[in-house]
Amino acid sequence: MFEYAPAPESRDIVDIRPSYGLFINGEWVDSLGDERDKTVNPASEEVLSEFTLATDADVDRAVSAARKAYESVWGRLPGRERAKYLFRIARIIQERARELAVLESLDNGKPIREARDVDLPLVAAHFFYYAGWADKLSHAGFARRAADGGGWADPRPLGVAAQVIPWNFPLLMLAWKIAPALACGNTVVLKPAETTPLTALAFAEICRQADLPPGVVNIVTGAGATGQALVSHPDVNKVAFTGSTEVGRQIARSVAGTGKKLTLELGGKAANIVFDDAALDQAVEGIVNGIFFNQGHVCCAGSRLLVQESIEEELLDALKRRLGTLRLGDPLDKNTDIGAINSAAQLEKIRSLSEAGEQEGAGRWSPPCAIPDKGFWFPPTLFTGVAQSHRIAREEIFGPVLSVLTFRTPAEAVEKANNTPFGLSAGVWTEKGSRILWMADKLRAGVVWANTFNRFDPASPFGGYKESGYGREGGRHGLEAYLDV
Ligand code: TAP
């Protein structure tokens, strides 16, 4: 049985303070209230640190600092000057990547291999990418007529951006939000999720290291109430939210009629569609990556496998063999494939939806897998014989659970894939290029991957249809969310 004992050499490279204040106007400050909470390592339930639950008055201080920085410095700085700061931040992230990857793994439960090879390189890449745009905004398609009518001028920023992010990719979601906001000339107040505040707090130090002017980035920790105070603050011009559809709806209601610009990146229930002519071994790797990467805590996870009926048995045999090789355990072990579930609450949600799957008649299967005594864990799980009406086919589980459905024709695959209130992503596995193009056209999903899955690039726009939200992050399109166009 695996006993949790973080590799000492990994643990030693991170410096976690016993408690954190709020990062406002370039300084660590105490809250005006006295509420605090603890963040734990989900692999061991060991307390990592204490953080502040910011009050409405703290949020007000942070928004005022962001406003002042916007009016006096950042909103006036030429793009090429803003770019220098963003490049500097990107380079510091690269230099500190090992430390940040360990910190992310400790606070979130994700395997260090993923934090090191996926999250951190993408975080740096986002800052590099948007640094490159900062002095080219008038070439991004959003230029406005200059006041004298004689030419084109840079588009205007929006002002103060309120940004609220979830716990599944804490530092990467921060980068998706802060990099384009700063590149466009906005200042920000960001609230990380209550179960994963540590890398956002480390990022506050990076802002200081980069000599970013005070108030340009402010980090307020807290629970949902802090997020609510932030998005409904009257002096905020832009709200960017990534999280659940339920909270997204509440935010949309609170922002309605205020004139604040809003982007929502919400949940998903992606179909990963495998045709009988697909390269099976590659498809199996894509399915595993699609749903078991980051324990399935991925908004665009391929949580519904749609397999063509004629290859169902062959594919499932190969998939089960592959699942038998996945290693669940210590997130800081470089050989670990499946880390810890981020919180007890999320584990409970995954358990209860999986039980509903069994009760509704689907067949449940997991490979033999030792579950550690402490911490929050869930084995890789497959459900076969899933009907479209089952809850596990309709609701977002956000865990390492795959629901398998079958289809006979491409039209049926499209119909089933689109039969969901979400529309964030989809995958198609086939040898036929024409079929890929046809499917991509018919699928109501913001991203369609062909013969791959979960591939991200800062230059690619990302976002959903239907209940998966609106607005795009990433790429040139991601600039529009932070400009007055
Ligand atoms: P949520 O519970 O919605 O929380 C997201 C963030 O909002 C957290 O920081 C949360 O704070 C805060 N929050 C909670 N209630 C709020 C309120 N009333 N007003 C303002 N902020 C509030 O989601 P989660 O459980 O952290 O994340 C999982 C969900 O995010 C999944 O549905 C997933 O699909 C979605 N997600 C989507 C994407 C994209 S790009 N579409 C990416 C990642 C995740 P606390 O953590 O303190 O409660």
TrEMBL record:
This is Aldehyde dehydrogenase family protein. The keyword Oxidoreductase applies. Belongs to the aldehyde dehydrogenase family. SUPFAM superfamilies: ALDH-like. Residues 28-484 form the Aldehyde dehydrogenase domain. Keywords: Oxidoreductase. It comes from the Bacteria.
